[in-house]
Amino acid sequence: MERNKTVIIVGAGLAGLSCANQVLQLSSKHNVVILEKLGKAGGNSIKASSGINGAGTRHQKEQDSPAQFFDDTVKSAKGLGKPELMKVLSERSAQAVNWLEQDFGVDLSVVAQLGGHSVARTHRGGGKLPPGFAIISALSKPLEDKIWPNCRVLELIRGSNNQVTGVKYVQGSTQHELMGQVVLASGGFSGSKEMLMRYRPDIAHLPTTNGPQTQGEGQQMCGLIDAQLREMDQVQVHPTGFVDPADPSNGTKFLAGEALRGEGGVLLDAQGKRFVDELQTRDVVSRAIMDRDGDPTLVLDQRAYSRIQHHVDFYMMKGLMRSGTLADLKAEFGWTADPEVSTSSEKYYWGVVTPVVHFTMGGVETTAHGHVVDKTGHVIPNLYAAGEVTGGVHGANRLGGSSLLECVVFGRIIAESIVNS
Ligand code: FAD
Ligand code: SIN
């Protein structure tokens, strides 16, 4: 392989797959290799269930614009993060949704409103496939021979003038070197108790929604070459991980996707009362739960269920939700008075939920073109990063649906930067 045309992507989640596909669409002169430490592609991206944001797409019924999405993002970020990255995120969001639909045939025609958004802009498909699975399956297909499974990257190799020239990786028990430009797409660190103890010891005891592979290796490799890390203490606690009645103390929880609340699910406390606007940002909803005793119950009536039936059916199949009449719901929780839900529904669907570590907003500092910068603010030549490994796109609180989006937007931007360099 011609050395300077090789693009080495670390991680086969959505950021890595978006970048790889875009490189191949733009250039026949570049080789792409995706090194993935697990046996298959997908990372946490494959678990995404609520969807991907897009402002101004053909599927939205309400008026929306990149400027409005940018305002929501900046508000949610609470003064942290880099507004120039948020601007790119919002301005390229509709194109990202369109790219997935047009070039890969992913259905993203259903739009829901998640917490902190001023309008409905989180897109998912109308069928049974959750959006993360549908997107990863479609984007993996053209890359079958480019994804090298069971290859764990250990270290970035550096040459003269601070540039990165390749990686050291291990496959089985053999160590190898591969030379080329490097794109880090290795995800966050919400699966690492060690990293959480270092940056957020106050929440390290909480369960997580992330797979055990989510160890922050990209951030650690960057730390070793003096790349700038930012806002590493900004870790998102999602308000609703399911408490599995058959295994309540399990440290890894299935996520009760925010779309369940977006489509009308409500949170009830131990007395059956609502205690927070369910469509507030995640930090607000999580805080409201943690300030009370006991885990709340997420309840959907028949109308809400009909809007998100496939998700609920899946959670019921897993034993995480159950259904019944109002009398059944009251009996389960010992409520004598009616709980604060519409009382005219034929049936209700419910599950107990608890706050969970979900996403790391902090990470490797990048420019709007996806270059990693060092501690003096200079670009590190030949090193790029996209997706959850980076910091600065979301500030203090990521809006639901904006992580899949950042993977696609910045994965594609890096491909453009590489092909045009
Ligand atoms: P990942 O998808 O996590 O991929 C990183 C990959 O890198 C992994 O495959 C990992 O094995 C690999 N890797 C790590 N280190 C190495 C190494 N050293 N060498 C080689 N490979 C390595 N966001 C939304 O926007 N909408 C949603 O609906 C949504 N739902 C979610 C539901 C759940 C349950 C979870 C956990 C997250 C959800 N998110 C959602 C967040 C979103 O899915 C992730 O933040 C995002 O997909 C991260 O993508 P990524 O490509 O950066 O990383
Ligand atoms: C969720 O479905 O609640 C997760 C969405 C996200 O993390 O963006």
Automatic annotation (TrEMBL):
Q: List, in alphabetical order, the Gene Ontology terms for molecular function in this entry.
A: oxidoreductase activity
One matching Pfam family: FAD_binding_2
List the SUPFAM superfamilies hit by this protein, alphabetically.
Answer: FAD/NAD(P)-binding domain (SSF51905), Succinate dehydrogenase/fumarate reductase flavoprotein, catalytic domain (SSF56425)
Q: What cofactor does this one take?
A: FAD
Report the domain of life of the source organism.
Eukaryota
Does Oxidoreductase show up as a keyword for this record?
Answer: yes
Name the InterPro entries on file. FAD-dep_OxRdtase_2_FAD-bd, FAD-oxidoreductase_2, FAD/NAD-bd_sf, Succ_DH/fumarate_Rdtase_cat_sf
Q: Which UniProt keywords apply?
A: FAD, Flavoprotein, Oxidoreductase
Q: Which residues form the FAD-dependent oxidoreductase 2 FAD-binding domain?
A: 7-404
Q: Tell me if Flavoprotein is a UniProt keyword of this record.
A: yes
The record's annotation in PANTHER family points to: FAD-DEPENDENT OXIDOREDUCTASE 2 FAD BINDING DOMAIN-CONTAINING PROTEIN (PTHR43400:SF7), FUMARATE REDUCTASE (PTHR43400)
Question: What's this protein's name?
Answer: FAD-dependent oxidoreductase 2 FAD-binding domain-containing protein
